[in-house]
Amino acid sequence: MQVTVTNEAKEQIHAAAGHEGKLIRINGELVGGCGMNVEYALWWDEAHPADELLQVDSLTMAIDPSTKEYIDSDRLVIDYRPQQGFRLVTPQQILAYGLKLKERWG
Question: Where in the numbering of this chain does the Core domain appear (predicted)?
Fold first, then answer.
């Protein structure tokens, strides 16, 4: 998978201090009852054995096989807009917006 991080998103990521040695997890989770959908999140994390690790400039990102399946594209852009927060965008669609990069359990 090819991940691109826009300059705006990089600025926001680098502004978050105190996360040295951690990577950014791109996570998709199937949620809901009768109407299932995928909820996406970005958080600081550590690598897990099944992850695909992606190096994007000076950033290391992890994505698990289920999330890759939910994204269903070989290209993903992580963008940031002041009114919308982080956005996950494929060539086909905007998967999520309003995301915050946070601690996993925070």
Answer: 1-101
Q: pTM here?
A: 0.91
- Where exactly are the structural domains of the chain? 2-103
Which residues are CB-neighbours of 77 under 8 A, at least 6 positions away?
Answer: 3, 4, 5, 6, 87, 88, 89, 90
pLDDT digits (tens, 9 = 90+) for 62-87: 999 999 999 999 999 999 999 999 99
Whole-number Å distance between alpha carbons of 10 and 5: 6
Distance CA 60, CA 72 (A): 21
CATH of domain 2-103: 2.60.300.12
